[in-house]
């Protein structure tokens, strides 16, 4: 039996009023049978819980009864930062703490504010991952949460994009960042501070080593600087393209915002048919070819020559695959 869960049942009834056993079970992620057992145990402990039979019935507290047992545990206090973010909280292994903390907050509020909080929660929902992809699997994320909070080093096996692809590192975690549904770990090695994609961690184990985070380290400032540096390293080339009016309308759905902004800032009309010419940043010939081919006949690459040639070769291969000669 979980004393914490019994308290959660009590706070649910205090903050929501009448609830069915099925509703309580759904809120706490337990079976209906477990909810019934918890209600009986509350009654046995002297809590004035009574059942209202019939349609629309359920369990509720005797009018006027309120508990003051709303003190929060350390885990629940941490979870407050994620009270409005159930998805990330679950990723971090804090789903139960978030539920308990939210119930305690609701129970401590006056009735009017409690109703307003419930209305607000009912009309906002966060879905962090981007379109057209499944959320990444991050089984080691709770371990990194523990490492960040206890300042313990972690030994990892990590898969990266360059050779050698698999490396082993001892990391000293400084913080975690959620970016567009993807979790990143900011951590130091012996030589530098770097960013690691949590889904690329193949193995992770807490070590006995304790470490001190550098005084004055600001996770938000580090992340902003990292993004700026990433953009500079990412775009190493330029391409001149022509776009039809239809291509320009389709642009935001097919390329990154940086490319859209570049088109908007460099576009100049060519002819009377609405086509424009613009200069865009590129990562590589292969990447730019794949991105621009999404626009089909609504784009033409003018320069550089190697990108124009790559587009022509790809289109030729496609034409032959479809029996066009």
From TrEMBL:
InterPro entries in UniProt: CBASS_pafABC_assoc_protein (IPR051534), HTH_11 (IPR013196), PafC-like (IPR028349), WCX_dom (IPR057727), WH-like_DNA-bd_sf (IPR036388), WH_DNA-bd_sf (IPR036390), WYL_dom (IPR026881)
UniProt organism field: Streptomyces venetus
Gene3D superfamilies named among the record's database cross-references: Winged helix-like DNA-binding domain superfamily/Winged helix DNA-binding domain
Transmembrane residue ranges: none
Database matches in Pfam families: HTH_11, WCX, WYL
Domain WCX: 237-315
Domain Helix-turn-helix type: 5-60
SUPFAM superfamilies with a match to the protein in the record: Winged helix' DNA-binding domain (SSF46785)
Top-level division of the source organism's lineage: Bacteria
Protein name: WYL domain-containing protein
Domain named WYL: residues: 140-204
């Amino acid at each position: 039996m979980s004393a914490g869960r019994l308290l959660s049942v009590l706070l649910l009834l205090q903050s929501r009023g009448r609830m069915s056993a099925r509703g309580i079970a759904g809120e706490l992620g337990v079976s209906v049978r477990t909810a019934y057992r918890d209600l009986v145990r509350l009654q046995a402990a002297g809590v004035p819980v009574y059942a209202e039979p019939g349609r629309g019935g359920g369990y509720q507290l005797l009018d006027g009864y309120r508990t003051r047992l709303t003190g929060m545990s350390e885990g629940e206090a941490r979870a407050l930062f994620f009270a409005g973010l159930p998805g990330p909280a679950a990723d971090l292994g804090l789903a139960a703490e978030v539920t308990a903390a939210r119930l305690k907050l609701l129970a401590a509020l006056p009735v009017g504010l409690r109703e307003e909080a419930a209305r607000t929660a009912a009309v906002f929902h966060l879905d962090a991952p981007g379109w057209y992809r499944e959320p990444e699997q991050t089984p080691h994320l709770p371990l990194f949460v523990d490492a960040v909070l206890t300042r313990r080093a972690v030994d990892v096996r990590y898969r990266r994009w360059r050779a050698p692809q698999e490396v082993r590192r001892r990391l000293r975690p400084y913080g975690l960042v959620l970016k567009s549904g993807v979790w990143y770990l900011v951590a130091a090695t012996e030589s530098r501070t770097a960013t690691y994609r949590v889904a690329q961690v193949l193995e992770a184990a807490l070590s006995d080593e304790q470490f001190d985070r550098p005084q004055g380290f600001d996770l938000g400032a580090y992340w902003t600087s990292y993004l700026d540096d990433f953009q500079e390293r990412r775009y190493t080339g330029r391409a001149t393209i022509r776009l039809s009016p239809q291509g320009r309308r389709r642009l935001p759905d097919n390329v990154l915002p940086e490319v859209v902004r570049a088109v908007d800032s460099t576009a100049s009309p060519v002819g009377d048919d609405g086509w424009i010419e613009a200069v865009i940043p590129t990562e590589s010939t292969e990447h730019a070819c794949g991105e621009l081919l999404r626009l089909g006949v609504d784009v033409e690459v003018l320069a550089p020559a190697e990108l124009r040639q790559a587009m022509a070769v790809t289109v030729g291969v496609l034409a032959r695959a479809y029996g066009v000669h």
